[in-house]
Write a structure and sequence with these properties.
Two copies of one chain form a homodimer. Chain A is built from eleven helices and 20 strands. The first copy, chain A, is α/β, with parallel strands linked by helices. In chain A, strand 3, helix 3 and strand 4 form a beta-alpha-beta unit.
C-alpha cells in the first residue's frame, strides 16, 4: 500500500465520527510496522483521545521504528483536555510520521512537525493535502477566519423551482434525498433559515432519522422584525432551547428563545457578516442555510458562502418560485462558477455539492 | 455468456450506426455456434443489409444448428429493398433465434417469428425487451403512432436559468456538453426551435464536430408570422435547403425555404399535433426541440413529448430566464414526474435524460 492508500484509510476512519467532533477536526490515524497495519484510531469527539493516541492505545505491540499516518499534524500544545500527541509519538520512538495537513491552529501550525523532526523522526507532509482540507473545511474556516462555515442548500425541480405557483414545496425530493439532508444537518452546528420559511412551512429544523430526533443542533431564524405566530414549532416545541432568533439591533421579542441582535444594512436587512461573527462567538462554527429564496439570494449576492449544495428531482413544474432572485449578475459570462462539484445520485434525485472557492468571501 | 450478454452485444453493435439508420430501426446480430461467437453484424442504413443478413454474410462456416441473437424480430415482408431475413434464417438451418422485440411494423408484427417457428426453429422473444424498446424508441413511435418522436432539450444554470437577465446564454454549458448536443442532433431527423430563438441567437442548427458539418438534417422554425430578417443563417446559409418554416395556414413568405402551413389554436399558436402529422408525412420521424422558453412551454403544457433532456452547468446566475413558463401546474403534488431518468456527467456538467412515459401524449 502507498502513502496515499494509508492516508485514504485515515480519512475513512476520521469520518466515523461524522457530526460528533465540532469544534475539533476530523482525524484518523493508521500505524504501520514492517509493511503491516498494527492498529488504527480516530478522534471520537471533544475531550476524547486524539486519533494518534487512539491508534497508539489500540496497538498491542512495541511501536519503535513504526510509521504513523495521520491526516492532521500531531498537536504539541498543552492547554487542552488531551495530552500533546507529538511528545507521545517521540516517546514511542516512531521512525516516521506521514500527514496530509499542518494544523492551522496557531498553537500548532508546524510546531508539532518541528518538535518531531528535532527528535530525529522523518516527517512527510502534504499527502492528499487537498482531500484533507476538504474533509476539515469547517475546522479550517473556523480556525483561519474566525467565522462559521456557510453551507447553502436548496432542493429544486429539474426546471429550477423551489416551490410551485401556490408556494407548495412538499415534497420536491425523494425520501432518500431528504434523509441525506438530515445526514448533512448532523455535520453542522446550526441550521439557518429566513423568516418567510418559518412562517410558510413551520419546519421542525431538527436532525432526524425517520421520526426520531438524533442530535440537538442550534436552529437559527433571521428576521428583520418579530411578527411571528409564537405557536410555530421554532418558538414552542420541545427543542426551543436550541432556537436562536436573529433580529436587528434594538428590536426586542417576548418569545422564549435566545435572541442575537445584529447590525443591519442600508436596506434594513441583517448584516450577514456581523451575524456570522456573533454566531461564531456563541460557538457556532458551521451553519447549514436551508432557504428560502430571500436569504439564499442575500448570501449569494454578498458572496458569503463556502459550499453550495442543490438537490434536483426529475420533476417539471413550469412557473413557480426560483431558488434565487437578483444576485447582481446581468450577463451569462459573469455567472458564478462553482468549484470542485461533486455529483451523487440519490435514487432518481441528483445531489450536487460544490465549494464556494474563489467566489466565496474568503 | 448468457442470452442477456449476447443481446447486449446486439445493442452495442446496433449503435455503431448511430444517426445513420432513419427511418429504419437500430439492429445488431450475433451468431453463436457450440458456445462460440461465429460472427456479428449490424444494420448500416436504409437499403443496406439487415443485421441478421450482415452477420450471416460475415460468417465463414456452415451455420446449421447455430443460434442467432438479434434485437429485433427478423423480417418476413418482401416489399422493400432487402430480402426477408426470416426465410434466410430458415434456409441456413439455424436451430434457435433469440430476439428482444417483435417488429412493430404491421407487415411483420410476429409473422417473422411465426414463419420461423413453423419451420421448426426455436424462438425466444423478449430478452431485454425494455432496453430494446429504448434503443428503438424513435422507430417504435414512428411505426406505432405515425408521429415523429419528440425530444425536448434545454441547457440551464444550476439555479435553473436558460439565459441571463440581458438574455445572453453563451455559453452556459461546457465544450464537452455542447459536443454531446451535436451527438444527439445526429440521431434525429430534424432540429426544431421557436421564432424567438432564431431571431435572438441566429443559430446554425447544423450537426457539427468541431467546426465541420458532419450530417445534413432538417432544421425547423415554428412561427406565428413571417417577420424574420432574411439575412439570418436559417434563411441564407449553405444549408437552407434543409430549412423548414412552419407558419399558420394562409400565411405566405417570400423566403427561399420550404414552408409547412399548419392549423392554429385559439390563441394563434401553431397546432403542434397538426404540425407533427405534417412533418411525419414529410419523412421526419424525430424532432429535437432545442427551445426556447415559449416553444418548450407549449410542448410541455400540451404534454407532447417522448423524451426530455437537460444539461446543467455548475453555475449560478440568480434572476434570468426560466426554461419554462406556465404549463398549467399550480401545486407541487401535480408536478410532471419524468420516468427512467439517466444521469451522465460530462466533465463538470450534468446531463439528465428521461422518457416522457405516462406524461406523454402516448
Amino acid at each position: 500500500m502507498s502513502d496515499k492508500n494509508f492516508m485514504n484509510m485515515c480519512f475513512d476512519l476520521a469520518q466515523k465520527s461524522w457530526g460528533e467532533v465540532s469544534p475539533n477536526p476530523y482525524v484518523g490515524a493508521v500505524i504501520v510496522k514492517d509493511g503491516e497495519i498494527v492498529s488504527t484510531g480516530y478522534h471520537k469527539g471533544p475531550g476524547l483521545a486524539h486519533a494518534e493516541l487512539d491508534a497508539i492505545n489500540n496497538a498491542d505491540q512495541d511501536l519503535e521504528g513504526a510509521t504513523i499516518f495521520c491526516n492532521l499534524e500531531p498537536c504539541c500544545h498543552t492547554n487542552k483536555r488531551t495530552p500533546p500527541c507529538a511528545q507521545r509519538i517521540i516517546k514511542e520512538k516512531f521512525k516516521k510520521v506521514v500527514i496530509a495537513n499542518l494544523d492551522p491552529n496557531p498553537l500548532v501550525a508546524g510546531n508539532g512537525v518541528k518538535l518531531m523532526q528535532e527528535a530525529g523522526i522523518e516527517v512527510v507532509n502534504g499527502v492528499l493535502k487537498e482531500k484533507g482540507e476538504l474533509l476539515n473545511e469547517v475546522f479550517f474556516k473556523h480556525i483561519q477566519k474566525e467565522l462559521p462555515f456557510v453551507h447553502l442548500k436548496w432542493a429544486q425541480t429539474l426546471d429550477g423551482k423551489i416551490a410551485a405557483k401556490n408556494y407548495t414545496s412538499k415534497w420536491i425530493t425523494s425520501d432518500r434525498a431528504r434523509a441525506h439532508v438530515h445526514h448533512e444537518r448532523m455535520a453542522h452546528d446550526a441550521i439557518l433559515v429566513g423568516a418567510s420559511t418559518v412562517k410558510k412551512d413551520n419546519p421542525s429544523l431538527t436532525v432526524r432519522e425517520g421520526d426520531k430526533v438524533v442530535k440537538s443542533i442550534k436552529r437559527i431564524v433571521v428576521a428583520s422584525k418579530d411578527d411571528f405566530d409564537k405557536g410555530l414549532k421554532f418558538f414552542s416545541d420541545h427543542h426551543c432551547s436550541d432556537s436562536i432568533l436573529v433580529l436587528p439591533e434594538g428590536v426586542q421579542t417576548e418569545a422564549n428563545v435566545e435572541v442575537v441582535n445584529c447590525k443591519t444594512n442600508d436596506n434594513g436587512k441583517i448584516d450577514l457578516i456581523d451575524m456570522l461573527k456573533k454566531l461564531h462567538q456563541l460557538g457556532i462554527y458551521s451553519v447549514y442555510v436551508e432557504g428560502g429564496h430571500a436569504i439564499l439570494t442575500q448570501f449569494l449576492k454578498e458572496k458569503i458562502y463556502d459550499r453550495v449544495s442543490v438537490f434536483i428531482a426529475p420533476k417539471i413544474i413550469g412557473e413557480g418560485l426560483s431558488p434565487l432572485g437578483d444576485i447582481g449578475i446581468h450577463d451569462m459570462k459573469d455567472a458564478l462558477c462553482l468549484l470542485d462539484s461533486k455529483v451523487e445520485l440519490l435514487g432518481d434525485n441528483i445531489y450536487l455539492t460544490s465549494r464556494g472557492g474563489a467566489c466565496s468571501q474568503d
